[in-house]
Amino acid sequence: MQPAAMQPATPIRPSAWYYWLAPLFLAAGLGVVVLVVARGLPRLSDALTQVVVPGEATLTLRHRKLYTVYYEVHSVVNGKVYNTNEVLSGLHCEVKSMDEETAVALRPPPNGPTKYTIGSRSGSSWGEFSVAQDGLYVFSCAYEPHVHGREVVLAVGYGLGALILKPALLIVFGTIGGVVLATLSFFWVYILRDQAIARAAAERLLPT
After folding, report:
1. What whole-number distance in Å separates Cα of residue 208 and Cα of residue 203?
2. pLDDT tens digits for 156-190?
């Protein structure tokens, strides 16, 4: 009587090496977060021009853009730290065209102040304005004659909400996406390997 022939071992697919997909997806998600923090947050200085007041600054402004003036209660300008969480009583600002000497009035934010905190800077919207045409404008602020206020930092710009929202969404998606993909890949490999192991065990029980 001839001995039964040995069944060749059925390879288990996918390989256990595929479990490494989980930490790779997780690392990729965390990499997105690190990249956004490293590249996104410094762009605040590009979106907002800081002005120490009383004082003035020359700004290049564009028509059809709604500019917001933020009062930065915590800020750093040229290495100097400002912590001036106080009411700006008696401070008046204006925007004047260098060509026509036309003054543009500031108006309070219609929906109340909008606050932000990024790194060492935090502030809230204090006023807003728009200009009739592109060009150079002088943004100046001064206290009333009888008011002796402190030096404070104002920041002028537009589109800050989108600038903050985009990195925030990328951070959330990077974190959650990395975890979700890592979890799905792990269970995908586990289920497929478990099914392959069950098939291999069934094949070993079949008569030759």
Report:
1. 10
2. 988 776 666 677 777 888 889 889 999 999 999 99
Helices H / strands E in the chain, number of each = 3, 10
Q: Residue 30, class by beta-carbon neighbours within 10 Å (0-12 exposed, 13-18 middle, 19+ buried)?
A: middle
Which residues, at least 6 apart from 192, have a Cβ–Cβ distance to it below 8 Å? 13, 14
Query: Residue 163: what pLDDT?
Result: 67
pTM value > 0.85:
no
CA–CA separation, 95 and 117 (whole Å): 26
Which tokens belong to 19?
Answer: 């479990």
Q: Are 134 and 158 contacting, i.e. CB atoms less than 8 angstroms apart?
A: no
User: What CATH number belongs to 45-158?
Assistant: 2.60.120
User: How does residue 138 score in pLDDT terms, banded at 50, 70 and 90?
Assistant: very high
Can you say how many angstroms the Cα of residue 163 is from the centroid of all Cα atoms in its chain?
Answer: 6
Rounded (10°) CA dihedral 23, 29, 33, 34: 40
Residue 46: strand pairing partners: none
CA separation for the pair 60, 192 (Å, rounded): 61
